């Protein structure tokens, strides 16, 4: 039997999966990334360590099916987006990779004029944010030009791992469409580089490929480390959000999906001609006729992890869900704002100083109310993002938060939309395998491949009674976060003043 491999390099984990050509997952291997957070502003990763961990994950995957090692038709890669991944002429990392959640470059945003911000968005269809590769490049140009002087190529995460597999320096359109491209022209923007004073770094930008194009083949060196057959085709791959859209079969205009993972990222498939800067951010879809309207809140499941570690008496999610069910919809009036990331919030509003918090706790509040409010707070944040979408279609849900039906049902009730849950877990790695299948010629196009890999789904319908409660509380949720903007900034000023 022939097989395909998908590799997904996330912010917190690495996943490698083996699929047969009918789209059935036959094996999955996971590993953890090793983030470096020397302070509340910086989030980095050692690039060589990440490569070793990815190679180990692939090798352990193949060891689960020793007989398949010579029957791998192709491998696809996907990974976290944005950030700054620099290598030198010899292919060695210049420094640790700077991740998308690093916020040291927020000072660059503050220094841009309103006219510069408008021009930035008109070119990229993105607001300038600290996560942006272009903005991080500017920060290093201003503060550490010596680092950039050593660099020969700037990558995104999955480009670095693909380079280690193939020794080819390339990028793809989906990843670079997050603030490095003139997205409508689908090419690097010299105007953007001039705007940010980065023209001298244009030579760092690698050649662009479409996601299903062959980027290269497994080298002898990579074959020895990973166990993959030498000369196995490697697809260019895509940004993790784009790969997940394939994994949940969001492959036609109007489809909406939600990745409930480290971030709470909503995407809506749109035709290229309908991209509109007034409606949010866009990235290019692996299908060359489409784009994805992106609405990505900074924090999804980390809120639940924090609650599990600091509030709940239980670590097992089955018991936590039993606690949630003890509290009625609305959590007894307790409202939680899920802005728990070090980097604040980026959508549907931008505030690097935004912070999580509870509102409405009284002596009558129970532990179950507080626990449930965290789940509801993330659901309210999702609803807040969805205000940018004018259609009322269902939501295809993916990510760690989709494992049970309780949280997706809360999301359905909060948003007033049907939620489709397939019961599967690994949609990003599936999307990577889908791209590999087209690259290897197993399937003729992405639409066909998505259909072959697609599985059944559970449909969760909003409860009208719960909707009434959540609609009223959402208005308060939104007004509170608007009122908090100035106080978040003042809080940060106090912390800075006293070095807290």
Descriptive report:
The protein has 17 helices and 25 strands. Helix 12 (about 315-325) crosses helix 13 (about 365-385), helix 13 (about 365-385) packs across helix 14 and helix 13 packs across helix 17 (about 465-495). The mean pLDDT is about 95. The protein has 2 domains: about 5-240, Nucleotidyltransferase, domain 5 (2-Layer Sandwich); about 300-420 and about 465-495, ATPase, nucleotide binding domain (Nucleotidyltransferase, domain 5, 2-Layer Sandwich). It is α+β, with helices and mostly antiparallel strands and about 500 residues long.
Write the layout of secondary structure elements.
Blueprint: E1 3-9, E2 13-20, E3 25-32, E4 35-36, E5 44-45, H1 47-64, E6 72-79, E7 85-87, E8 97-98, H2 106-111, H3 114-124, H4 133-143, H5 145-149, E9 153-155, H6 157-166, E10 170-172, H7 173-176, E11 181-182, E12 187-188, H8 190-195, E13 207-209, E14 214-217, H9 220-226, E15 233-235, E16 238-239, H10 240-247, E17 256-260, E18 264-271, E19 281-284, E20 290-297, H11 301-310, H12 317-325, E21 335-337, E22 357-359, H13 367-386, E23 395-398, H14 406-415, E24 419-421, H15 427-439, H16 446-453, E25 458-460, H17 464-497
Helix pairs in contact: 10-15, 11-13, 12-13, 13-14, 13-17, 15-16
Q: Count of DSSP helices?
A: 17
- The pLDDT mean sits at 94
Number of beta strands: 25
Low-confidence stretches: none
For the largest beta-sheet, the strand count, sense and barrel status come to:
7 strands, mixed
CATH architecture level-2 label of the largest domain = 2-Layer Sandwich
CATH superfamily of the largest domain: ATPase, nucleotide binding domain
Structural class: alpha+beta
> What CATH first level of the largest domain would be assigned?
Alpha Beta
How much helix is in the residues?
A: 25-40%
Count of structural domains: 2
CATH topology of the largest domain: Nucleotidyltransferase, domain 5
In the sheet with the most strands, the strands line up as 19-20-18-17-23-24-25
Q: What Rg, in angstroms, do the CA atoms define?
A: 22 Å
Distance between the termini: 59 Å
- Shape type: globular
Proportion of residues in β-strands? 15-25%
């Amino acid at each position: 039997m022939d097989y395909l491999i998908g590799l997904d390099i996330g912010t917190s984990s690495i996943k490698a999966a083996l699929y047969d050509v009918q789209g059935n997952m036959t094996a999955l291997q996971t590993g953890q990334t090793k983030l470096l957070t020397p302070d509340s502003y910086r989030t980095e990763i050692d690039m060589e360590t990440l490569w070793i961990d990815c190679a180990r994950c692939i090798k352990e995957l193949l060891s689960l099916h020793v007989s398949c090692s010579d029957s791998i038709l192709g491998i696809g890669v996907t990974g976290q987006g944005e950030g700054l991944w620099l290598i030198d002429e010899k292919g060695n990392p210049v420094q640790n990779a700077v991740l998308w959640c690093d916020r040291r470059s927020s000072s660059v945003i503050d220094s841009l004029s309103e006219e510069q911000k408008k021009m930035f968005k008109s070119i990229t269809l993105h607001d300038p944010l600290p996560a942006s590769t272009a903005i991080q490049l500017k920060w290093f140009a201003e503060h550490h030009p010596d680092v950039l002087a050593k660099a020969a190529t700037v990558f995104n995460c999955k480009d670095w791992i693909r380079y280690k597999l193939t020794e080819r320096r390339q990028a793809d359109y989906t990843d670079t469409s997050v603030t490095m491209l003139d997205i409508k022209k689908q090419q690097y923007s010299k105007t953007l580089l001039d705007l940010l004073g980065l023209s001298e770094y244009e030579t760092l930008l690698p050649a662009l490929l479409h996601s299903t194009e062959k980027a290269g083949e497994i080298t002898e060196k990579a074959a020895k480390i990973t166990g993959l057959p030498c000369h196995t085709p490697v697809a260019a791959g895509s940004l993790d959000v784009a790969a997940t859209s394939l994994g949940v079969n969001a492959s036609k205009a109007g489809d909406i999906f939600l990745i409930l993972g480290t971030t709470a990222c909503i995407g809506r498939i749109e035709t290229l001609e309908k991209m509109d800067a007034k409606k949010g951010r866009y990235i290019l879809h692996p299908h060359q006729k489409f784009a994805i309207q992106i609405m990505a809140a900074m924090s999804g499941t980390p809120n639940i992890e924090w609650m599990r570690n600091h509030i709940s008496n239980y670590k097992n999610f089955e018991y936590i869900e039993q606690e949630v069910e003890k509290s009625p919809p609305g959590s007894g009036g307790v409202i939680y704002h899920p802005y728990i990331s070090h980097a604040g919030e980026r959508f549907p509003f931008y505030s690097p100083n935004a912070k999580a918090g509870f509102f409405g706790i009284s002596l009558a509040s129970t532990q179950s109310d507080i626990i449930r409010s965290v789940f509801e707070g993330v659901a309210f944040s999702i609803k807040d993002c969805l205000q940018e979408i004018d259609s009322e279609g269902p939501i295809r849900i993916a990510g760690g938060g989709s494992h049970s039906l309780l949280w997706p049902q809360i999301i359905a009730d909060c948003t007033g939309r049907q939620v489709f849950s397939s019961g599967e877990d690994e949609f990003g790695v599936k999307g990577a395998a889908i791209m590999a299948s087209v690259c290897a010629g197993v399937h003729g196009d992405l639409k066909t491949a998505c259909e072959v890999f697609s599985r059944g789904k559970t449909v969760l319908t909003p409860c009208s009674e719960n909707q009434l409660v959540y609609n009223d509380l959402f208005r308060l949720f939104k007004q509170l976060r608007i009122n908090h903007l100035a106080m978040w900034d003042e809080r940060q000023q106090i912390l800075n003043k006293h070095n807290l």
